[in-house]
Amino acid sequence: MKKGLLGVWLLLSIGVFAAENKSRLVVGITINHFYPEWLMIYENDLSEGGFKRLFSQGKKVMADYRYLYTQTGADQATIYTGLLPSEHGIVAHQWYDRLRNRRQDNVSDGKLTLLGEEGNGLAPDALQSMTLGCVMKMNNGFSKVYSVGVNGEEAVLSGGSCANLALWLGEHTGKWVSSSYYADSLPGWLSDYNARMESDFFIRRGWMSLGDEGGNLFALKLKNRVGLSSGFYYDLAQAKRRYDTYRILKATPYVNTLVTNVAMELMKNERLGVDNDPDLLALNFSCLDYMNRDFGVYDREFQDVVMRLDLDIERLLAELDQSVGEGNYTVFLTFSEARELLPDELGRMRLPSGYFSIFKAVALLKSFLNLIYGEGDWVLDYDATQIYLDRTLIDQKGISLKDIQDKVANFLIEFEGVSRVLTAHSLVQGGSSAGVDVLCQNAYSQKRSGDVLYVLQPTWIPTLKDREDSYARYSKRNKVPLYLYGAGIPEKMPEVCPMTSLLPLLCNLLHIPVPYTVIP
Q1: Percent of the chain scoring above 70 in pLDDT
Q2: Which of 379, 234, 297, 285 is nearest to 41 (CA)?
Q3: How far is CA 127 from the centre of its chain?
Q4: How far apart are the first and last CA of the chain?
Q5: Which of 100, 128, 170, 229 gives 177 a disulfide partner, CB atoms 3.0 to 4.6 angstroms apart?
Q6: Percent of the chain residues topping a pLDDT of 90
């Protein structure tokens, strides 16, 4: 009931105000793996034209994803569809497809090809709803929709099925790539832009703190090597030779600069926001991507990420002022899979914490089920807090699915760090209205989710298989700041709102109907 009343209030409050402030361009900014408290910790170091401009001239709302574990991809789908994972279908990076007996990626499509380098293309076919871009183009055939991301997953899911183009950084070539889902070839301007090879420029430079740029690079390298430097230096050229991939740029703040640069080039060449047909540009930044756990939240590397990202946002806003005109565009900025404190950091505050290994737990679970039910591959797969059981085997053995789900739940709850375990039967049959159970229910898809879902204690973190493991990565921080700036933003905003309320707000700001797929 509260959600419904809040949604009505948002629609009514913005409907009148937006009539005189129609936006020609909506720019959505999502920052992955960001620790929102950094904006207060480094407030005095921020430029006046970056984050501070959004703070002082815009509106801040605490947005609630309203599901327990947030994750890149799933979060972008929620933002741009106005729906929960239980409804838009993106429950994780991957899930087990019982009909095809294999793991299914949320955007991969083996029938498509990459544009710009070799490989399989990506598509948003797993998304079960319209996105903001779809609604905009349905109501105005001249509207343009583009998305840019560090990784293909967030670029594809934020752009949706109606995007003119989704772009992400190719790991083999260091160039911006796309998928044949959107076009037969890359536009000419992008091919020319890729030929500049900006990625190589940053590789040659290496990563040092912003304050050390312009100094004696040789001395910095030497001091860093012998442990006498108060700063840091990472030799990206050496890392590129060793690993032979441009992925290393994703673990630096330079990747956000690359996203900003190509976004500004895109705005210029595709003429976004220059007429009365509203356009959408979805941007996805990252904070050290797959290496975001390698540093503590107070480490100098993360401070440098924040400082550089602040300057990138300042440049982006300045470009919007110049090319679109202040007062003619709208920006929203929020966070996906927000950074949590790690056990080492929590331990300094004497808080009980630790790493939970689902890999070890499942190994013991398999032995337990073999003892109870006999030899068999009872566990088909496990991923992102979910365990998939072999329902065909269970049926063949004449075992009650509910009973074995309960057995698994009772076994898992005994592990240290696990606070709650829910079964698919309880989520389908029962209805929750509050607490952790409803957060799990909002992320549960009867077709795509597992048989058992477990919940970790607030201070416990999942163990990763390795640094490349993206499937066990998620965040328990479901409430994050949402900043709104520019044309059409009402004077009064609620202090807290569901993240799913953002899409209706933007639709009314653009004077287009809220899609019927959005549940009030």
Answers
A1: 91
A2: 297
A3: 15
A4: 10
A5: 170
A6: 82
